[in-house]
Amino acid sequence: MKRRVLLAAAAVGIVAAPLGVLAQAYPTKPISIIVPFAAGGPTDALARILGARMSEALGQPVIIDNVAGAGGTIGVNKAAKAAPDGYTVLFAHMGTLAVNIALYKTLPYDSKKDLEPVGLGGTNPMVLVVKKDLPAKNFAEFMAYVKANQKKAQYGMAGIGAASHLGGLMLNGMMKVDVLEIPYKGTAPALNDLVSGQFDYMVDQAVNVLPQIKSGNIRALGVSTLKRLPQLPDVPTIDEAGLKGYEVTIWNGFFVPKGTPKDIITKLNGALVAALSDEKIRVRLTELAVDLPAAKDATPEAMRDQLKASIDKWVPTIKAAGIQPQ
User: What is the rounded distance in angstroms from the CA atom of residue 58 to the CA atom of residue 48?
Assistant: First the structure.
């Protein structure tokens, strides 16, 4: 009888050991970071910059896997269903994990139950930009123009659930206007049409629109943060320009499948903190108007709180706007 107990205990040890060994030895092979959007966008760019530095800290290659489609849900679902071994990491923004809850009737994943947070990777401010020949020269004139021309005014965005959709949704809702919404398949085509004057305005991430602003192809009338951007010191915040309380920023965060060992999450978070603490990284991303968190704000716990706060803010906002889930 004693022999059987010992054999059973040994068998349990054989099964349990690999998990403990995995966490201790991790990582021993390349790590895949799933970005649920096409290459070239702000989330992809940030993932590549941070991922390269995290690779150094982890001692293994980090490979970016762009899995685009359905507002980011395909990529998020792939990450959520992956093995919880630390070799598949998700880097997604607020829209895919919080806003999509209200935009889709059903989702193949639960942001809060199927994923474990690793940490915040950065926050992107937004900018209200208009075609260069729009009569309005400042935000007050812009708001008056849109209110007076609701039947012909148009705003563009990169697709349902995109950052530019959220920025415009909040702006129009607070201005209490009903204008024609033009969805595009991505930021690039939307921005190209704004430059050519095909629609009137757009609220998009600063990293996307800064080059066109500096080239004089479009004009900036306000920024979405409560403080002015160093990259656009002469452009007022939308809040100070007259629309009190307007604030929209897009956070990007790292997550892993539920069940990933805590030790692995700790190692990934350590690599993230190393990247965020790298002065060269901070300088480079500041130039792109990305707001990088301090180490104390990049913890898994802080990321979990940020996700909950975003869900609590955006789900009621979208429902109040009368947007029907897809």
Answer: 15
What number of residues does the chain have? 326
In this predicted model, what pLDDT tens digit does every residue of 258-314 receive, in sequence order?
999 999 999 999 999 999 999 999 999 988 899 999 888 999 999 999 999 999 988
Question: Which residues share a beta bridge with 124?
Answer: 250
CATH topology identical between 2-124+250-320 and 125-223: yes
Task: Please count the other Cβ atoms lying within 10 Å of the Cβ belonging to residue 284.
Answer: 12
CATH homologous superfamily of 125-223:
Periplasmic binding protein-like II (3.40.190.10)
Q: Which parts of 26-152 fold into alpha helices (H)? A: 42-58, 73-80, 94, 100-103, 139-148
Contact residues for 185 (Cβ-Cβ < 8 A; gap 6+): 158, 159
Contact of 164 with 157, CB cutoff 8 Å: yes
Tell me the C-alpha to C-alpha distance, in Å, between residue 147 and each of 144, 151, 282: 5, 9, 40
Q: Which residue, 262, 261, 314, is CA-closest to 98?
A: 314
Do residues 276 and 293 lie in contact, with contact meaning Cβ atoms separated by under 8 Å? yes
**2-124+250-320: CATH number:** 3.40.190.150
Distance CA 271, CA 294 (A): 14
Cβ-Cβ contacts under 8 Å for 324 (sequence gap 6 or more)? none
The DSSP 8-state label assigned to residue 97 in this structure reads: I
pLDDT in tens, 6-26: 434 444 444 444 555 556 799
Question: Tell me, what amino acid is at 249?
Answer: T
β-pair type (154-157, 88-93): unpaired
Distance between CA atoms of residues 193 and 218, nearest Å: 11
Q: Which two structure tokens, joined as six digits, stand for 20? A: 């403990």
Domain ranges in the chain are 2-124+250-320, 125-223
Q: Quote the CA–CA distance of 219 and 239 in Å, as a whole number.
A: 18
